[in-house]
Amino acid sequence: MTTASAARPIPASHPAPGDHHVVRRASDLIGGTPLLELARTGAGTRLLLKLEQCNPTGSCKVRMARQMIAEAERDGRLKQGGHIVEPTSGNTGCGLALVALERGYRFTAVVDAHAARDKLRAMVAMGAELVFVEGSADGGPSSVRRRQVAAELAAELGAFHPDQHNNPGNANGYADLAHELLAQLGSIDVLIAALGTGGSLCGTVRELRARGASTRSVAVEPRGSIIFGGPPGVYHQTGAGSPAGFPIGSNVDRSLIDDAHQVADGDAFAAARVVARRTGLLLGGTTGAAIHIGLRHLVDHPAGSTVVVLCNDAGEKYLDSLYDDAWLAQRGVLDELAHRRMDRLFATYDESIRVAELDAGRVA
Ligand SMILES: Cc1ncc(COP(=O)(O)O)c(C=O)c1O
User: Fold this and answer.
1) DSSP letter at 225?
2) What residue segments make up the domains of the chain, in order of their start?
3) Whole-Å CA distances, 257 to 84, 225, 246, 316
4) Fewer CB within 10 A of the terminal residue: the chain, N end or C end?
């Protein structure tokens, strides 16, 4: 266990008059993340990436971490100088670590070895304490055990246990993300995201619809996860999905999910790796899974549709896993064919644009 040094709350930002570009807390940099066009069809349908790795801590989850803490402060569940205990695969933990240090809370993350090592190191760097639980025997996440240990520890210490799977603050934390998308795009036809707690997809779609959008929502989980059924199995995408035996929380709001897909590790990782080579942007494996679905179905949408993939995090946290051929090969998920299929999809869309331009007489 690593011990945090005494945290001193960082005061809220009060920009000097006329100074709109400087903030005094990292959490004031949350949001305003950019969009990148990844692919386009000849019919003008676009696949856009909402680059949530541009948030502090490199993930969308800092949005909900801040919201869960703010709501707990408001209703008295979290008092000045208090202690927060939460199980995490890493990104929620990094978000909680950041907001905890700014506001003077102690934070203990309950983790396992399935988490990306760099997420664990980042939490420690921000002063969080880590409590490790045994990984599951099959090498998958030990989410059930992590959750149980966190609940027990929080009860024993009298700490605040956010319980991200059932905390409404999780989904509420994505209202601003919906507002941003509407401001950036006007309308969004389809939103695709990897599903774990459900907070990011369901929270964003709920707010989009509350603002009058008729966005279709598409949830993506790793093959082997049990949220949408199918046989349980081992998967190596971290952050998304639920292993066998894990109770699905209330933030997975099925009334807000229109389509659901399961994606094998090989396809998810190949998508992320091919995108890295095409764009220079390194994305996480769960984002790769969402892109895999987005690309495969891009032509199915009406001409001119806007399809957005929510990028949960960046690939720099996974350099020693999904960007490492040896790591993939050891786990039997280095899938050369999947890489080629992904390349071919991109090439097909590029070609469809050329054909459309020829049809329109714009190319001599
Ligand atoms: C990398 C990654 N992808 C996907 C998800 C799933 O997001 P949500 O819990 O909002 O459904 C998470 C959640 O922690 C994550 O860290």
Assistant:
1) B
2) 26-54+172-346, 61-168
3) 31, 17, 20, 30
4) C
Judging by beta carbons within 10 Å of its beta carbon (0-12, 13-18, 19+), is residue 252 exposed, middle or buried?
buried
Tally of CB atoms within 10 A around 238: 25
Better pLDDT: 136 or 169: 169
Work out the mean pLDDT of the chain and round it to a whole number. 93
CATH classification of 61-168 is 3.20.20.30, yes or no? no
Give the number of residues written for the chain. 364
**pLDDT score of 357 more than 70:** yes
pLDDT digit string (tens) for 198-250? 999 999 999 999 999 999 999 999 999 999 998 999 999 999 999 998 999 99
Per-residue pLDDT at 331 exceeds 80:
yes
Claim: this prediction has a pTM higher than 0.85: yes
Exposure on the CB side of residue 284, measured as CA atoms within 13 A:
30
Decide: 272 in ligand 1 pocket, CB within 6 A. Answer: no
Nearest alpha carbon, ligand 1 atom 15: 239
CATH code: domain 26-54+172-346 is 3.40.50.1100
Residue position matching structure tokens 């999910």: 257
The reply to whether ligand 1 has any atom less than 6 angstroms from the CB of 91 is: yes
Question: If you measure from the C-alpha of residue 164 to the centroid of ligand 1, how many angstroms do you get, rounded to a whole number?
Answer: 11
Neighbours of 98 (CB within 10 A): 26
